[in-house]
Amino acid sequence: MVINTNTSAMNAATMLQQNSANLSASLARLSSGSKIVNPSDDSAGLAVSMKLGAQIARTGAAQQNVNNAISFNQTQDGYLQQVNTALTRMSELTVSAQDVTKTSADLKLYQQEYSTLGAYVNDVATKSFNGVSLFSGTSLSVTSDSEGSAFSNLGVNLGSTSYTNATGGNISTVTGAQSALTNVTTAINQLASDRANIGSNEEALGYYNAQLSSLSNNLSAAKSQITDVDVATESTNYAKENILVQSGTAMLAQANSMPQSVLRLLS
Predict the structure, then answer these.
(1) 187-202, pLDDT tens digit by residue?
(2) Do 200 and 69 lie in a common domain?
(3) b/e code 61-73 from CB counts within 10 Å (16+ = b)
(4) Which site among 2, 3, 15, 254 is 20 to 30 Å from 36 CA-CA?
(5) Spatial distance between the Cα atoms of 172 and 174, rounded to a whole number of angstroms
(6) Are 156 and 176 part of one and the same domain?
(7) Is residue 151 in some structural domain?
(8) Do the Cβ atoms of 205 and 151 come closer than 8 Å?
(9) Bridge partners of 203?
């Protein structure tokens, strides 16, 4: 039996130190909710989770872009619904102006209403969404995924001759009304095509939105598998380490008291 070197106490202290470190790590995981508190906990998992986190953020940004584009198209169609009402009334006026029983004074009144509606359509052509023209005819590239791929959002041009020929018509004469009818009919056909394109845009963007939402959920689930702590499992581990620390402390106290038995040999 030796006094200077208490091997039992040294071994007990080493085990107690390891169990205390494990207990502290378990406590940190439970309090943070993450399995990776320090890079050393899972260096490879940390690297993968960082890349997944960045992709999740990019996917969220792309989804926001898509949602904004959907709002852009919905705003366009809201205006075009009213343009459709205006053009429909203008077409009605062109036919009414061809009534041989109408006087020139009557035709003047028809022309006044026709011009007012035409001015409304021309005004709609100048509208914008957050500073971006709604009806310039320019197709917009909408980011559709986290890697920057783009969807071409077809534009609508209310300033095209299909519309301006109709809005600038003169129905104060029968001949003018006949010509205006042709132009308004062309404008209505163009409007039907434009609204169909907007519908196609919204439909495609809706698919992209659903796709991005699903991708974001799946990426989040994958990241969770790497970084999120399983509370039930970790609680069990914490209880185990806590017991080991308590028992290790008791055993270290016992090991430190063993050299005192040497005193019996000296007495």
Answers:
(1) 999 999 999 999 999 9
(2) yes
(3) ebbebbebbbebb
(4) 15
(5) 7
(6) yes
(7) yes
(8) yes
(9) none
Using 50 as the pLDDT threshold, list the residues of the chain that sit under it. Answer: none
Two tokens at 144?
Answer: 């559709």
pLDDT (0 to 100) of residue 95: 96
134 and 239 belong to one structural domain: no
Check residue 154 and give left, alpha or beta (phi > 0: left; psi -120 to 50: alpha).
beta
Same domain? 185 vs 132 = yes
Distances in whole angstroms, Cα of residue 227 to Cα of each of 43, 45, 181, 232, 245:
11, 8, 68, 15, 26
What local confidence, expressed as pLDDT, does residue 32 receive?
Answer: 74
**What three-state secondary structure class fits 79?**
helix
Cβ of 45: how many Cβ atoms within 10 Å?
16
Per-position DSSP letters for 160-178, written without gaps between them: SHHHHHHHT---SSHHHHH
Domain assignment of residue 124, given as a range:
58-227
- Pair (78, 120) in one structural domain: yes
Number of domains in the chain: 2
Q: Are residues 14 and 64 in the same domain?
A: no
Q: State which H helix or E strand residue 129 sits in.
A: strand 128-129
Residues 130 and 29 in one domain: no
Pair (250, 183) in one structural domain: no
CB 160 within 8 A of CB 190: yes
Please give the Cα distance from 171 to 181 (Å, whole number): 9
